[in-house]
Amino acid sequence: MSVSRVVELEGHIIDSGMMQACFGIVMDLDGAFDVEEFRVGRSKTEESYCRMTVTAEDPVTLQSIVHELHQHGANPADPQDAHLTPASADRVVPEGFYSTTNHPTEVRFEGEWLPVERIEMDCAVVVHPADEGGDRGAERSALNHAPDGEGPWAETKVLNAIEAGDLVVTGETGIRVHPPERPREKRAFGFMQGGVSAERPSESTISQIAEELRRVKADGGKVLVVAGPAVIHTGAREALARLVREGYVDMLSAGNGFAVHDIERDRYGTSLGMDTETLDHPRKGHKHHIYTISEVIRAGGIPEAVAEGLVDSGVMYECVENDVEFVLAGSIRDDGPLPDTITDAIEAQNALRRQAHEADMVMMLSTLLHSVAVGNCLPSTTRVVCVDINPATVTQLLDRGSAQAVGMVTDVGTFVPTLADYVLAEES
Amino acid sequence: MSVSRVVELEGHIIDSGMMQACFGIVMDLDGAFDVEEFRVGRSKTEESYCRMTVTAEDPVTLQSIVHELHQHGANPADPQDAHLTPASADRVVPEGFYSTTNHPTEVRFEGEWLPVERIEMDCAVVVHPADEGGDRGAERSALNHAPDGEGPWAETKVLNAIEAGDLVVTGETGIRVHPPERPREKRAFGFMQGGVSAERPSESTISQIAEELRRVKADGGKVLVVAGPAVIHTGAREALARLVREGYVDMLSAGNGFAVHDIERDRYGTSLGMDTETLDHPRKGHKHHIYTISEVIRAGGIPEAVAEGLVDSGVMYECVENDVEFVLAGSIRDDGPLPDTITDAIEAQNALRRQAHEADMVMMLSTLLHSVAVGNCLPSTTRVVCVDINPATVTQLLDRGSAQAVGMVTDVGTFVPTLADYVLAEES
Amino acid sequence: MSVSRVVELEGHIIDSGMMQACFGIVMDLDGAFDVEEFRVGRSKTEESYCRMTVTAEDPVTLQSIVHELHQHGANPADPQDAHLTPASADRVVPEGFYSTTNHPTEVRFEGEWLPVERIEMDCAVVVHPADEGGDRGAERSALNHAPDGEGPWAETKVLNAIEAGDLVVTGETGIRVHPPERPREKRAFGFMQGGVSAERPSESTISQIAEELRRVKADGGKVLVVAGPAVIHTGAREALARLVREGYVDMLSAGNGFAVHDIERDRYGTSLGMDTETLDHPRKGHKHHIYTISEVIRAGGIPEAVAEGLVDSGVMYECVENDVEFVLAGSIRDDGPLPDTITDAIEAQNALRRQAHEADMVMMLSTLLHSVAVGNCLPSTTRVVCVDINPATVTQLLDRGSAQAVGMVTDVGTFVPTLADYVLAEES
Amino acid sequence: MSVSRVVELEGHIIDSGMMQACFGIVMDLDGAFDVEEFRVGRSKTEESYCRMTVTAEDPVTLQSIVHELHQHGANPADPQDAHLTPASADRVVPEGFYSTTNHPTEVRFEGEWLPVERIEMDCAVVVHPADEGGDRGAERSALNHAPDGEGPWAETKVLNAIEAGDLVVTGETGIRVHPPERPREKRAFGFMQGGVSAERPSESTISQIAEELRRVKADGGKVLVVAGPAVIHTGAREALARLVREGYVDMLSAGNGFAVHDIERDRYGTSLGMDTETLDHPRKGHKHHIYTISEVIRAGGIPEAVAEGLVDSGVMYECVENDVEFVLAGSIRDDGPLPDTITDAIEAQNALRRQAHEADMVMMLSTLLHSVAVGNCLPSTTRVVCVDINPATVTQLLDRGSAQAVGMVTDVGTFVPTLADYVLAEES
Prior knowledge:
Four copies of one chain form a homotetramer.
Chain A: E1 3-11, H1 18-28, E2 32-39, E3 48-56, H2 59-71, E4 75-76, E5 83-86, E6 105-109, E7 112-117, E8 124-128, H3 134-144, E9 153-157, E10 167-170, E11 175-177, H4 202-218, E12 223-227, H5 230-233, H6 237-245, E13 251-255, H7 256-268, E14 270-271, E15 274-275, H8 286-299, H9 302-307, H10 315-321, E16 325-329, E17 341-342, H11 345-358, E18 361-365, H12 368-376, E19 383-388, H13 391-398, E20 405-409, H14 412-427
Parallel strand pairs in A: 7-9, 12-13, 12-18, 13-16, 16-17, 18-19, 19-20
Antiparallel strand pairs in A: 1-3, 1-4, 2-3, 5-10, 6-7, 6-11, 8-9, 14-15
EC number (chains A, B, C, D): 4.3.1.12
Catalytic activity (chains A, B, C, D): L-ornithine = L-proline + NH4(+)
Region (Disordered) (chains A, B, C, D): 131-151
C-alpha cells in the first residue's frame, strides 16, 4: 500500500540540473517515479516541462521526498493553499514548519501566490493576512522599502524573530521555489556547481570582477564589502579606501579588529605593531592596538574621532566621510571593543542581515566568520565575489548555491590594489 | 550557412547528468540543438533515449562540439567506421588524433565495434587489423592476460608509445564512449560529482572502506596501495605491514623515500632520524637514512637484503615475503637511490601503468606525486580511496571522474591502523 | 665511569643562537657540560668565545653529542686530522662517515684546514690528496670553475657519486663547521629558524598526551576542553562524552553550534542533517538543527531539557549530569541561539577568561575562533594541546609563547576516540 | 649625546634563549650594549647571570628597547617603584601604560615586589593599595579563590575592565617579568618558539625582493628561478618572460609540464586547454597539450622549435633567445615528455645540483617537488625567495636553515607581474 503525489517542473530544467537532481532525490530516498508527460525544449531558448507521479511506501517517506523536490524546484501539480500554524510561543516553531531555501519562493494563500519577501536560507515563512492592521504594514514597508501594501503578504523569519501567534507555513503544500537557471550566455560570473581551483589566471579574473563591479554601480546597484583584518595586514588598506572614496562601496561589514587595525595604521603607521611599509616591527606591538581603542573610546566613537581630527585616512575614515554605512560585529576575540562595535551577536546579525538584503553584489575579503554570517542571509540571486588565501574558505563560502559567484584563492594584499587599478583606470 | 550532425544518447542519461552536460556543451560552444526524439525512462529502472541535431556556424566549431559530446557519451546517430591515419614517426601523432577519456570506449572498424583495451585518459587509440601477424597478438595477450585473438583489436597508447606506422584513430566518427552511470542503489563509494568535505564522521567512513576492501578481495579482485613517506613518519607502518601480510594488498606503488624510511625504521628504529615510538630524536638524523641506502646497495637490493637477514620487518619486508609486487619510482628529490628504484621516469611510468590496469581497487595514502601518476592511468571504473591531510590533494585526486571513489581528509597515522583493525577484526 | 671532550665555540655565538643550541643538545642527549672559559662580546661587533668540557656516560653517547655540537658550530678544542676511510665499493659509504650540514665547512688534512668545496646537506666528505694526478684536478676545475689546484682538496659527494677507493671522512674529529651568523644589520631577508611539521607519529603523540592528561588529573589539576562543531560532525562526540563522564574534563568552552549539533545528534541521530553512523543524509538537513534549538528554547535551556528527559546522551548531557561547567559563546553565524548561549561578546569573553585562568591544561579541538579567544587569556605556564586538520590553525594557536604545548595536525574524528581509548585503557 | 640604562638577566638565560633574544632586541632597535658582568652557569643546573648597559641615541629609543627587554625577562638593575597613573575615565588607559606579556610578572610598590595576579597578555596592570577597603578585597578573593588579603595587591585588567581612578602602571620601571625557562628534562610537551605567519604586507615585501634581485644582479650574481606550472596557469607567464628577456634570470629549473604549458600557450593561447586571457575553455583540453609535445618532438627539441619559428614567445622562448640555461627534470606524471626533458632522476638531480651551486639567489615559484630538489643542494649562504599559495609548502622549503630567506604565502599569478613591475620600473 503505497502513497503518491504528482509534481511538475518547468523551465530550463535539464541544463540547469533540476531534472537530474529531482530524479536523484527520488531514488536516494527510496521512492519511485513515473514520468507522465515530458516535453523537452527543442532548442536552447525553449523551456522544458515534466510532470511525474512520485510514489513511496508510506506518507512520511513521501513527505520527505516531496520536501526535497520542492527545494529543487519541483512543485505539486495540484496547488492548494499552504498550511498555516500559529507559533505557540516566541522563538518556537510549530511541528512541521517549512524551512526555506535561498531561492525566490512563493506561497499560496487564499488561492493567490504571494512572493516571500526577504528570502533567506533555513528560515520559517510567516504569512500576514490582509486584515492585520496598520502597524505591520508600516513595519513591512520600512523593512522592504516598499509602498504600504494593503493585501496579505509573506516573509521569512529566523527562529529568534518568531513571535507567539505568527502564522507559520507548515508542510509542503502551497509553496513554489524557483532555483536559478543556468544563464543562456557566457558570463564572468559562473553558474556554481561546486569545485574551486587555485590555478586560474589571476589578473584576467580580477579584470572581469572589476568590470562586473563597474556594471553593478552603473546600474545603480549596491555593493557590500565584507572585510577581514588581513586586508590591513597585507597592505591593501589604501586601495580599499580609494574604492570607498570613489563610490564603489556602499556598505562595509567587518569586525572590531578590522576597524582598530585600520585606525592604528592611521595613528601609528602600524598594524598590530608592524609597519606595513617598511616591515619594521617597532616592537611596541599590541600597545598601539590598545591605545587606538582607548583613544577612540575617549572621543566617543569613530565618527567623533574623525570629526575631531584624530583619524584622517583609511577605510573607516572614508566610510565616515562618504556616508558609507558600516557594521562592526563584536567577537570573543576582540580587544576593547570600540564603542561602534555591536557586541550582542543577535543584534549584530540583524544589522548584517539588513545589509545583505540590500546588496546587489557582495565582496568577501579574507574573513571566514563575517562572510559566513553574511552569506547565510543572501538570496541565491545576489552576485558574490569571494577572495581568500585558503582554498577551503573559498569552497565553503561558494557552496551556498549562489547563481552568480566567483571565487579566487589569492592574496588580498595584491588582489585589492590590482582590482582598484582596474576599476579606476577604466574610469578615466 | 551552418553545418549539423545528429547525435544520440541512451541509458540513465538524466540522473547521470549526461543530458545536462551535453546541453551545456552545445550552448557553451555556441552551437544550437534541436531535439528530434526524447523518450524519458518512466521509472528508475527504465532507460531514456534522446536524438538531437546539433548545429554550428562552421565545421571547426561543429567538430569541437561533437568531440566534447563524445567525451560525455553522446554518439553520432549514423555510425561509420573510425578514420585511421598512420603515425608519420615515432612519438608523433597525426593531426586530428582522437584523445581518449577514461571511460569504456569502442571504436568501429570494418563495420564492427571493437572495445578499446586498457582504456586511459588523454591517450591515442591505435587499431591493429587482423592480419597483423603473430607478434602483436602475443604482445597483446601478454599485456592483457587474454587468450590470443585472431581478429582486429584496438588499444590506447600514450604519446611516447606511438610507433611510426601505427594506425591512429583521427576525427570524431566511429567512436562510442560509455561514461559511468549513477548506481541505482546507495553505496559507500559515491558517484563523484565534485566537492569534498573534511567534516565527515571518520570512523564510520573507515569501517565502510574496510568492508569494501574485504568485498573486493572476496571477489578475487586486486588491491593496489600507493603510499607516501608520511605513512612511515606518522607511525602507520606496522598497520600497513599487517595488511600486506594478511593478503589485503596485491601491489605497492611508492617512491625511493618510502622504502628507505621503512627499512631505516627496521634497522635503526627511526624514520628520518626520529624514533617513531618515543618521539626521541637521536639527532643522527639523516645519517641513518644514508646508511640504510648504503647497506641495501651493498646487499644488492631489497629482496637480497631480506634474504641475508638485513631487514626483517616492515612494509617492504612483507612485500618480499608475500610476493607482493612493488614499484619504486625515482624522483629528483631522492637520496641514493636504492638499487630497486626505477630512476627513468618513462620506465617507472610504464611500471605504474601496468599496476594501475590490473587493479580493481586503489588506495592512495598521502602522496600527491605517485597518486597523480597512478590516477592518470586508471579507467573510470576502478574503485578509488584517497586519504590525505591536505584537502586540496584529495580534491585534485578525486577530480578525475572516477565512478566509485571516496576521499577522506584525515591523518594516515590514525587512518591505516583503524582500517587494519576493522578489516582484520571482521576476519576473525 | 664517564668520558669527556673539550669543545670551543667562537663568533657571535649568543645572538646567533649557537650557545643556546649547543647547551640544548648536551641536555637533550643526556650529557653534562662544564664551562671552562666564557668571554662574552661586550658590544655588538665584538665576538664571543666559549670553551667547555662535555661529559657523557659512554663513548657512543659522547660521540652523538659531539656530532650534534659540530653541526651547530662547536668544534673540538684539540684539533686533529680528520679520519679518512676508503670506500669499499661504488655508492657504499664506510661505517661512521661524516654527514654534512649545509654550512661552510673545513676539514683538517695533514695539519692543514681545507675548505670543503660545493657544500651541501647530508653528503659525505671526500678528501683528494695532492698526488692524485691530473684527471681529478681537471675534474675539479670543471666542477668549480676554478683554476687547477696543485695541493690536496676536499669536496662533498652524494651517496651515488661515491667511488670505490674514495677517501671518505669518518668520525667527528678534524672538522669545523661555520653556521651562518645573525646579520648585524636589519635586512629584508630573514634569518630562518625552523618551523612546524605535520609528519609526526600520530599514535605515539596521542599516547603521550593521554599520559599528560592523566598526570594533570592525578595532581588535582583542571582540564578545559575548547571544542568546535567538527568534533560532532567527524563522529568524535561519543568519545568526548566518555571523557566528560569519566571525569577527565572539568570545563567546556564552545559555541552555540557545537551544543546544537551535539543535541541534534541525540534527538535525531544526525548532525546538520547527516547521520553520523550510516552517512545517510536524510535530506531534512537544516530543519533538525532549527527544531533542536526550538525545543530547547521551549524547555527553557539545556539543563532543563536534560531534566525533562528531552536529551539523554552526548557531550552536553554529560556536562549537565557531571556538573562540568560549560560556556557557550554566541557568534554572528549562529542559528537560534539556545537560551544557554551568551550572546554578548564581552560577557562571553569574561566567562572564557575565568575558565582560562582556572585551567591547568587546555585541549583545543578544531575551533580557531574559540581557541584564539581562550588562548588570549592564558598565562604562558598553562599546558596546551592543539588539534586541527589545518596546519595554519595549529601554528597560529601555538604561536603565543606557551612553555608547554603540543600541536597536532590531525583529524579530531580519529584523535578523540584514540585519546579516550588510551586514557581509559590505562585506567583499568 | 646618548642615554643608557643598566639591565640584568638571571636564570637559565642561555638555553632558554633569553640572552639571544635580548641581544637581538638591542641590535634590531638600533641600540648598543656593553656587557659588564657575565657569569655563565657552568653546568646544566647552575644558573647564569648577566649585567649590561644598554645605550641608545635618545630617550624614546631607549625606552622602546628597555620595554622589549622587559618582555623577555631583562630587568633594570636599579629597581624603583613602578609609576602609577590613575585612569581618567572608564575604559581609557593613561598614556604610557605598561602592556603585559603572558609570563609571570611582579610589580614594585612601596619597595615591595607584588606578584601580578591573573596574568594575561596585552593587558594593563592595576595596583590596589592596602587601604582600599573591604569590597575590593572581597572581589579579589572571589576572583582568585584566595583568602582575603590585607596588604596591597596587583592584577591585570583588560581595557574594558579599567575603571576611572584605577591606578594603572605606566612606564617601564618597577616591573619584573619571568619568561618560562626551557625545562631541564625532556617532555612530551615542547617549548614553543614562534612560527610562520601569512599576514605580511604583500606589496612592500615584493618591492624589497625586487630591490634584492636588482642588487644581486648589480653585483654580478646569478639568479636561478625554479618554476612550477602554476606560473603559467595563473597568468604570470608574460611577466616571467620579461624578467628573462631583461636579464634578471640566469638559470631556469622546471619540469616537463612547465615547458609544455608555456609552449602550448604560445601555440594555442591555452594552458591545459584554458584560454588564460578570456578564461574560455575551448574544451579541447588536453589535446593541445599532447599536440604541443608531438610538434616539439617532430622539430627535435625546444631550441630547434624556436629556430624553425614554431615557438615565438614565452618563458622557454626567451630562455633560448637569451642563452638562459634551462633544466627540465622528468617525472612520472609527465605526458610525452619533450626531447629536452631529462627523464633519468639521477641525471636530472645532477643538473639541478650544478645550477644550485652556481646560484647566488634562488626564487622558488609554486613548485614543491623541484624546490625541494634544488633546496637540498643549496649551501646555507644562498639567498632564497619562496612563493606558494600553500603555507605548508613555504614552511617546508624555508625549514632548511638558510641564513637569508624570505617566504611569501601568496599567489604567483599576482606576485610575478608585481615583481616584474617593481624590478623594471626601478630600471628606467
